[in-house]
Queue: 2 jobs
Job 1
Amino acid sequence: AQTVTQSQPEMSVQEAETVTLSCTYDTSESDYYLFWYKQPPSRQMILVIRQEAYKQQNATENRFSVNFQKAAKSFSLKISDSQLGDAAMYFCAYRSYGSQGNLIFGKGTKLSVKP
Amino acid sequence: GAGVSQTPSNKVTEKGKYVELRCDPISGHTALYWYRQSLGQGPEFLIYFQGTGAADDSGLPNDRFFAVRPEGSVSTLKIQRTERGDSAVYLCASSLGTGPQETQYFGPGTRLLVL
């Protein structure tokens, strides 16, 4: 079974600075998708960024980028120019390529942004 | 259009009671997912619908949990003989299709508290 591990329960960053959130996963599959979701206090999960395992190029979405290391099974999220609105829980998630179903989530990292 | 909506936002019940949680997916989305998020944890998959049928219910913890989607749109998660351990946020998500690349859009969840 696949597992997702987020080893940082909490992180803090100064406004306008850069922060990296870590995620590792365990799988025997070669094709899969990885995601970062943001969950603000409103509880609604919002997709931040997605990475297809077969793509070597790291995904980027504006201030958000990932460092995908397939051999190491590592998928970190970098947030540049952090903003107060970035404060939230961040969840890393895995989905099998052949799956029509569920996401497998890590336990999350709580990000605080200091003004 | 409107996003995924869930009602009620919060539900308090007594141990042993029956509860129903409702999910209204994005219009036109054929796939619908239920997840449960316990305190301090990431969401855990419960059940997935493709149209009206449950395509995968392997995440349901026991036979007290049941979900329906009779017309392929709104879904109801039903919990019988609630237990204190059922207390959690129940999240619903929908996606346009079933492929692994499809983005799952989440609702704000229902926070269930069993006293």
Job 2
Amino acid sequence: EAEVAQSPRYKITEKSQAVAFWCDPISGHATLYWYRQILGQGPELLVQFQDESVVDDSQLPKDRFSAERLKGVDSTLKIQPAELGDSAMYLCASSLAQWGTSGGSSYNEQFFGPGTRLTVL
Amino acid sequence: ELKVEQNPLFLSMQEGKNYTIYCNYSTTSDRLYWYRQDPGKSLESLFVLLSNGAVKQEGRLMASLDTKARLSTLHITAAVHDLSATYFCAVWENRDDKIIFGKGTRLHILP
């Protein structure tokens, strides 16, 4: 069964250090999402890619966060420098959806990876 | 801006009982999703609801959607311990092509 892959699963770092997370979406999924989930809350969208292009990064703290999906397949999310408040679960999701269109049935359904739990000390 | 509210946020119940989780949202939407999350794990898709009056059932869980009332319910029938988890509803925001999550309902079923 196709799954979204993420690594690492856990990351502990000290504040001011740089961290990077990797995501490989389900094959053929054009849209890729990075979410941040703080303990006890729902996921919040950080950035959304359509193929290699960013279509929404309005909630991404761009002074320290960056994301890329150079070949339109896998993606990397980076934080530099990490701060204590960045401790959270970082979730990657993918879907078949083409941004700006409305498909039928479960077209826009998002499938989530296992996540990376980040702890900043 | 779309707001999604779930209630209750925490629910402790006995095995064998029935209960309902509510999800209200603030603006018109084409679709709504329910996800399950176990502690420390990722989100598992449960239901996708696409139209007014849609009802879907899987085992002891049944989800419904009333787009006129902007309300979805997740009903649990004869709860069992294995259903203990956090349940999220997520609503499609038509204008911005993204989904907005509720805060989740943490369900604890006592054996």
